[in-house]
């Protein structure tokens, strides 16, 4: 399926509305932080953004079901019978939100037959919006009234590499990945970033590869994955196979997001990957 241009504009507006709701909490003097069953943090901003996005998507495409990180358990189970659905992370990077470093995003993706076909990633503090998909291309807008800028991944096979790594979840496996990369190409530049902005750095060509060698969920990656595809890049598991969605287990395996060139990034992944 392909979204119409009017729907794409409305989708960006929904993401921005959710971002405005998040900022209303972020800019307040204080907010409560709860813990979900898996120990991850939850704030009023997560719930507010969820409600804004779900209401907006139901109005935009009432025929397409929705799965959000904050969805009820029965909705999570129902998704397995759906060919097409919206996959949403209302506030990706809640830990960054709590730290007030601005590196958090709103993620909205359209999934069809296990693949992300379109995605919107909006960073409220930066007022930067990234959007695209395989059949659409990819763009960014910095500031609500700014012109769209087409984006594309870097097409590099040698030289100094730029690796983007998680600010909160780096770990020994990523350090081993960087060490092996250094042996081949020399010491890379390493940039740290929170939330799905890491994948967006690959989509804009500001980074060559993002190795996520640790746990994530499908809603963490789907929107930015679509943007990278639209920008000419890819996201695969550690063995080089496309990252798939709507699996029985909503956890992602280890994955790599990368741009162009003929580098086989999977060879730098340390042993014992998933």
How would you explain this protein's 3D organization?
The chain is an alpha+beta fold. It has two domains: 5-150, Fructose-1,6-Bisphosphatase, Chain A, domain 1 (2-Layer Sandwich), CATH 3.30.540; 162-268, D-Maltodextrin-Binding Protein, domain 2, CATH 3.40.190. The chain has seven helices and 16 strands. Strand 8 (137-142) and strand 9 (149-150) form a beta hairpin. Helix 1 runs antiparallel to helix 2 (44-60) and helix 6 (197-203) packs parallel to helix 7. The radius of gyration is 18 Å and the shape is globular. The mean pLDDT is 91.
In short:
31% of the residues lie in helices and 27% in strands. The protein has helices spanning 5-26, 44-60, 73-78, 94-99, 171-185, 197-203, 218-230, and strands at residues 33-35, 41-43, 66-68, 84-92, 105-112, 115-123, 128-133, 137-142, 149-150, 162-166, 189-193, 209-212, 216-217, 234-237, 251-252, 255-258.
Order of strands across the biggest sheet?
3-4-5-6-7-8-9
Spatial gap, N to C terminus: 32 Å
Which percent bin holds the helix content? 25-40%
Q: Radius of gyration over alpha carbons?
A: 18 Å
The figure for the number of domains is: 2
- What's the mean pLDDT score? 91
User: What pattern of helices and strands is seen along the backbone?
Assistant: HEEHEHEHEEEEEEHEHEEHEEE
Could you name the CATH class of the largest domain?
Answer: Alpha Beta
The CATH H-level superfamily of the largest domain is Fructose-1,6-Bisphosphatase, subunit A, domain 1
Total number of helices: 7
CATH T-level topology of the largest domain: Fructose-1,6-Bisphosphatase, Chain A, domain 1
The CATH architecture of the largest domain would be 2-Layer Sandwich
Strand portion: 25-35%
* Tally of strands: 16
Would you identify the regions where 5 or more consecutive residues have pLDDT less than 50? none
How many strands, what sense, and barrel or not for the largest sheet?
A: 7 strands, mixed
Structural class, by secondary structure, is: alpha+beta
How would you sum up the global shape? globular
